[in-house]
Design brief:
Structural class: mainly beta
Number of helices: 5
Shape: globular
Order of helices and strands: EEEEEEEEHEEEEHEHEHEEEEEEH
Helix content: 10-25%
């Protein structure tokens, strides 16, 4: 398939033979800026009321702690793999939001599609995203990086298809060379069933400035999404969903991008589960192309 490019500057459209299709938005403007130091992010429980505040970019469907809240505060964000997990401060036309992403290449941050393009909460494309690897409250040990260069799968941009809710943010600085990157893999469904999956991100109900981690059981695996009872909340969209191989118990391997709470699980499945689009082969090929393009 062809890559479809949308630009609000003079960047030329690029065509490649890839699947699935992608949509790109870039204005070439990059820089660094610190968000305010005077408080934590706040979760907006109803969009459209009062003055804009920082909220989760993912709406009500992603706000799910299942049963008891078993999330654990991460205090050592300079350690692996937490240093590779990024806080996203997302500026949209309708407000400012918090999300999560992971470094998967020197200049590439993988996240949920709705963290860069969401009609309901952002009115379309984000205007700018400030990326902070390993943020720990007001501590930003690896610096901050502002970007307006975003790419999302066409199936997300065109139809908001939850199975393709995946995107990336491209940075000018190769910070991934310093903090490291997540390994990515496609796992057959049979290898994911009955595993525990790990998720860590920046939930808005905890202030949106600290990482919170939980690992719990996979309930079922569909052709393009994995469903689990690992606790999450708004702001953790875009967080890595990772596993460990039996023969490499210390190597985290990302197999999906967290995007949905129980409200995003089809009712016909009859389960209460959070979920993530899987890194299926066609998506993996696309991500590889994004990483390669960011390195140019």
């Amino acid at each position: 398939m062809m890559v479809k490019s949308i630009s609000n500057a003079s960047a030329a459209a690029v065509e490649m033979q890839l699947a699935p299709m992608t949509t790109t938005m870039t204005d070439g403007m990059h820089g660094t800026e610190k968000p305010p130091e005077d408080g934590s992010y706040h979760d907006m429980l109803a969009f459209g009321f009062g003055q804009p505040v920082v909220s989760s970019a993912d709406g009500f469907r992603q706000r799910t702690v299942i049963g008891e809240d078993d999330r654990i505060l991460v205090t050592q964000t300079k350690a692996d793999p937490f240093r590779r997990i990024c806080n996203l401060l997302i500026e949209g036309s309708l407000g400012t939001y918090v999300g999560t992403g992971t470094l998967v290449g020197p200049r590439t941050v993988l996240t949920a599609g709705h963290c860069v393009n969401h009609r309901a909460t952002m009115g379309g494309w984000a205007k700018r995203i400030i990326v902070t690897p390993g943020q720990n409250g007001t501590e930003r040990p690896f610096g901050q990086f502002a970007s307006t260069n975003f790419i999302a799968l066409d199936r997300w941009v065109d139809s908001q298809d939850p199975d393709y809710d995946i995107s990336c943010i491209q940075l000018d600085e190769p910070i991934g060379e310093k903090v490291g990157t997540f390994s990515l893999a496609t796992f057959p469904a049979a290898e994911l069933e009955n595993r525990k999956v790990n998720i860590c991100g920046y939930p808005a109900d905890k202030g949106g400035m600290h990482q919170w981690f939980h690992a719990d059981q996979v309930l079922t695996v569909g052709p393009k999404r994995v469903f689990y009872v690992t606790d999450t909340f708004g702001g953790q969209s875009g967080a890595p969903v990772w596993v460990y191989r039996d023969d490499a118990p210390d190597v985290p391997i990302q197999i999906g991008v967290h995007a949905y709470g129980t409200g995003g699980t089809p009712s016909a499945m009859g389960i209460a589960a959070n979920s993530a689009p899987l890194l299926i082969p066609e998506v993996m090929e696309q991500i590889k192309s994004w990483i390669a393009a960011a390195g140019e």
